[in-house]
């Protein structure tokens, strides 16, 4: 089981602070009314092609937009992460409000960086399920866009109301080295 990091998950610096997984301004833009979060874990074994639930689903107290993770240093939190959030906010608020927005290639890259950053930070809410290697987090921090092995998609909402939830799916596929089980 992984432990809560004592060093920044991005730069490796010390003095970690709490970082919102989802910024509170998104909650205000969504006008979210959810007061609980449901945490569900699953284990997928691709070698044996099995799927099993990990711990049983549980309801966590508190609003999803107050969810914080200790794992980002003050320098990253108040530096590049703050600048990224300030840059993405004018794009996200109109998108959330279902307004037509033209995103340049740079806007799309920035939005993808923010989505990847949010996914990476969210993993540390339950450190047992951290799947993104430090090298990928450092790559995102230093280059300003997700690593080449990431794919981020966006699509319009077809429902009546936004759902306040976080869903994260990740996996690694590859061949077993010769001679190892």
Total strand segments: 6
Q: Into which percent range does the helicity of residues fall?
A: 25-40%
Q: For the largest sheet, list the strands in their spatial order.
A: 1-6
Radius of gyration (CA) equals: 17 Å
Mean pLDDT: 75
Strand content: 5-15%
List the secondary-structure elements in sequence, H or E: EHEEEEEHHHH
What is the straight-line distance between the termini? 23 Å
- What about the largest sheet? 2 strands, antiparallel
Broad shape? globular
Estimated structural class: alpha+beta
> Could you name the ranges where pLDDT drops below 50 across 5 or more consecutive residues?
33-53, 172-177
* Tally of helical segments: 5
Brief write-up:
The protein is α+β, with helices and mostly antiparallel strands and 181 residues long.
Could you characterize the architecture of this molecule?
It is a single chain. The protein is α+β, with helices and mostly antiparallel strands and 181 residues long. It has a domain at 16-36 and 64-143. It has helices spanning 24-30, 74-78, 80-96, 105-123, 134-143, and strands at residues 16-20, 36-39, 42-45, 50-53, 58-61, 68-73. Helix 1 packs parallel to helix 3. The longest helix has 19 residues, at 105-123.
Topology of helices and strands:
Layout: E1 16-20, H1 24-30, E2 36-39, E3 42-45, E4 50-53, E5 58-61, E6 68-73, H2 74-78, H3 80-96, H4 105-123, H5 134-143
Helix pairs in contact: 1-3, 3-4
Keywords for this entry:
about 180 residues, two-stranded antiparallel ribbon, 5 helices, 6 strands, about 30% helix
